[in-house]
């Protein structure tokens, strides 16, 4: 059995964007605006924006990116297959991990939200720089 794989349309050139942000809570809104303008029309845009929101908040709250003068970087890659977002922070004492729902109180739901909304997520890095990656396959016909 042969499977047909659609060829990319002429306007589906792979795109890649990167922007650095100050590690301040008011920058999270700017991250969402940045992504929303670039990915307008992407079927899972709302999910991408919520995941970027969670990852930016985590970078500010749980890493040195939230310290005075701290920064974090957002990378967005879009092609015929979908969207991949990356948030790179300045590292911190703990590794990103999913928490057990029974352990949650007021906080700690960020990565559970990420896990629920994207197809896959992962992280890599060191105590001084860490990147969290989330993928969103294109699902429209």
Automatic annotation (TrEMBL):
Keywords of this entry: ATP-binding, Kinase, Nucleotide-binding, Serine/threonine-protein kinase, Transferase
InterPro entries, per the entry: Anti-sigma-factor_SerPK, HATPase_C_sf, HATPase_dom
Occurrences of domain Histidine kinase/HSP90-like ATPase (ranges): 23-135
Single GO molecular function: ATP binding
Species name: Actinomadura meridiana
The keyword ATP-binding belongs to this UniProt entry's keyword annotation: yes
Transferase recorded as keyword: yes
Designated name of the protein: ATP-binding protein
Gene3D superfamilies membership: Histidine kinase-like ATPase, C-terminal domain
């Amino acid at each position: 059995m042969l499977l047909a794989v659609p060829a990319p349309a002429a306007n589906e050139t792979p795109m890649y964007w990167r922007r650095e942000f100050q590690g301040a809570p008011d920058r999270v809104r700017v991250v969402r605006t940045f992504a929303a303008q670039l990915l307008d029309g992407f079927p899972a845009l709302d999910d991408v924006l919520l995941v970027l929101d969670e990852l930016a908040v985590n970078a500010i709250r749980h890493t040195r990116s939230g310290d005075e003068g701290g920064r974090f970087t957002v990378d967005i890659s879009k092609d015929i297959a979908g969207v991949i977002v990356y948030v790179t922070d300045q590292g911190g004492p703990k590794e990103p991990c999913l928490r057990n729902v029974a352990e949650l109180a007021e906080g700690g739901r960020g990565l559970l939200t990420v896990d629920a909304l994207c197809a896959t997520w992962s992280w890599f890095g060191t105590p001084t720089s860490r990147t969290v990656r989330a993928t969103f396959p294109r699902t429209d016909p």
